[in-house]
Structures are given as structure tokens and as C-alpha cells.
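tool_call: predict_structure(chain=1)
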Amino acid sequence: MMESEGFDSRVLPQAGKESSAVADFARAFVNSAVETPVNGALQALNKATGAALPDLHICAAPEHSSRAADEGLTAGALVDLVVLSKFSRAAMGELGGTGMGGQALRAGVVGGIFTGLLEPSDPDSKTFLKDRLENFGVGAITLGVVGASAHALNLTEFLSANTLANRVALGAFAGLNGGLAYAESNAILKQHQAFPELNETLRDARDFAGLGAFLGAASSARALTNERFIKPSAF
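tool_result:
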């Protein structure tokens, strides 16, 4: 079949790639944000009560590895963390005080709940409780360090101003520390070794720093939106 004038068939493969990337991201996002935490909680409930509630199956994550799928998984987990933080903040209030220790404590509780309760573990494991407690420890240490770092960095003169650049830098530094804490706590608590592999440490530090920078930018954008469009009298 002859191609019509002006039509370039080379566009089709690229369009197909873009469509596939969007589908990978969407499937991974829904799986991470909805299916995974629900099944993690159901798994814990079944183990604790002896019930046999079925898993939720609405959207399986892509079986192949891709950047879009990885970003979708990360974005879904971030949404869960933000929602969990909102509920936890309402429940905990100013638990531990308003200083660095209090912020680390509250962030650690959120991280522990996220990884210890909502993250599924090996269903065939003979040490289910131990596995969940290890996950809780890794999550609590990681976000506890992020919370403490963010509080400490926010007190420094060069990062205290509420600007986009400062929020991004603060998030990146706090995330970097969280990535290092994640690598070390994961090595000690789950791999039972003193130090993580260097490539794992660098990868985790990079990934957490990137996430922190993104959250810092989002926080700055939200603050700017509130400043422009929300009147103080509304509160």
C-alpha cells in the first residue's frame, strides 16, 4: 500500500514507545499506590487473625523493567507516604515536641508504618513477624533521618528562606542522608552485614536525593500557591 503524500511512517514506532511508556507508568503507579499497600495490610491482618482475605488484584505492575515503570512505582509510593503523613500528623500532633527529635520521631513512625505494615513480605517466610519488624526498622530509621536532617538544615541561614532553590536543596540534602541511612539500616537489619555494597549505597543516595529535591520543589510550589490564592482570613 502506498503512503499518502506528506505521511511519514517513521512516526509510528516513536508514538508506540511513548504510548507504552505512559501505560507502564500508569500501571506501575496504580499498583504501587493502591494494590501494594492494601495487600500488605491484608497480609498482616491474615497473619494476625488467621483469616484468609483475598488479595486485591486491580492492576499488575509491568513485568518488564523500564524507566517509566520505575518512576510510576516511586510516584505511587510517594503518594502513599504523603497521605499517611497527613493522617499520622493529625493523630500524633506534636508528639515528641517541635524540635529535631520530635520531627525525627514522627517521621520515623510514618516510615515504620509504611514499610512495616503496608509493604508486603514473602508469604512463604517462616519468620513473618521478624521480616515485618526488620522492614519497620529500616523505614523508621530512614525517614527518621530524613526528618531530622530537614529540621537541622532548615535552621541553617543559607537554607532557611522559603525559596524554590532552598526547598530543592534542603530536600536533596535530607534525601541524601535518608538514602545513606536506608542503605546502612537495610544492610544491618535485613542483610545482616556491617556495611552495604558501595554501588548500592551510591544508588540509594542518588535516588533519595532526587526524591527529596522533587518533594522540595513540590512543597515550594504548594506554598507559593497558598500565598497567592488563599487568604489568611480563611484560617
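agent: The CA atoms of residues 65 and 197 lie 22 Å apart. Proceeding to next step.
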